[in-house]
Write a structure and sequence with these properties.
The complex is a heterodimer of chains A (113) and B (114).
Chain A (H helix, E strand, L loop, with lengths): L3 E4 L2 E5 L4 E7 L7 E6 L6 E6 L5 E4 L2 E6 L4 E6 L8 E7 L9 E2 L3 E6 L1
Parallel strand pairs in A: 2-11
Antiparallel strand pairs in A: 1-3, 3-8, 4-5, 4-9, 6-7, 7-8, 9-10, 9-11
Chain B lengths: L3 E4 L2 E4 L5 E7 L5 E7 L5 E7 L6 E2 L7 E3 L5 E6 L8 E8 L9 E2 L3 E5 L1
Parallel strand pairs in B: 2-11
Antiparallel strand pairs in B: 1-3, 3-8, 4-5, 4-9, 5-6, 7-8, 9-10, 9-11
The chains are: A mainly beta (113), B mainly beta (114).
């Protein structure tokens, strides 16, 4: 059962453009929503995270938008750079479950120079 | 400070062989996790541990066993490898999920079962 659905599977953006990746979740008990970035041959690394008590969180060029009623959240990468080319995973977790992360299927982002 | 270290980085097994993947963390983290990553499926939790001497099953535990005899180490075992276990395995750790839910990942072990 895929509890976190992520789209698109792949995304190609021109340098300077905006990259948008979307995720939807089913379990309303989720209370923590991180995004992980993974470069080839490396493990995922936390990029930015949000809790459902806020609708938006921004860190530099990266912004998470969160819509609790729609059970959706998205990652926006402003002024996308070739160095942002990586695979991005959304995830969700809940308290009382050892904070197990339930991951989306991933989005391979390519930023063209 | 090495973070999370996985050994080995690559391995090829024949069907039916056994092996152990080692994960070591030097951050004094309580929680440790084993995930597998397959194309188009993200990362799926195999087993996890909330402290030394404890283990629990995740989403896809069949065919795997784990042990956490020391706080800093989390071992993943395959008793009789199958081609379906061909995957990239990631270990992760976190300090205290109630307070800081960031999970730190190792660099992965690419396992091929032929």
């Amino acid at each position: 059962q895929q509890q976190v659905k992520q789209s698109p599977q792949s995304l190609i953006v021109q340098k300077g453009g905006i990259s948008i990746i979307n995720c939807a979740y089913e379990n309303t008990a989720f209370d923590y929503f991180p995004w992980y970035q993974q470069f080839p041959g490396k493990g995922p690394a936390l990029l930015i995270a949000i809790r459902p008590d806020v609708s938006e969180k921004k860190e530099g060029r990266f912004t998470i938008s969160f819509n609790k009623s729609a059970k959706q959240f998205s990652l926006h990468i402003m002024d996308s750079q070739p160095g942002d080319s990586a695979t991005y995973f959304c995830a969700a977790s809940m308290s009382g479950s050892a904070r197990q992360l339930t991951f989306g299927s991933g989005t391979q982002l390519t930023v063209l120079p | 400070n090495a973070g999370v270290t996985q050994t080995p980085k690559f391995r090829v097994l024949k069907t039916g062989q056994s092996m152990t993947l080692l994960c070591a963390q030097d951050m004094n983290h309580e929680y440790m996790y084993w995930y597998r990553q397959d194309p188009g499926m993200g990362l799926r939790l195999i087993h996890y541990s909330v402290g030394e001497g404890t283990t629990a099953k995740g989403e896809v535990p069949d065919g795997y066993n784990v042990s956490r005899l020391k706080k800093q180490n989390f071992l993943l075992g395959l008793e009789s490898a199958a081609p379906s276990q061909t995957s990239v395995y990631f270990c992760a750790s976190s300090y205290s999920p109630r307070l800081n839910t960031e999970a730190f990942f190792g660099q992965g072990t690419r396992l091929t079962v032929v």
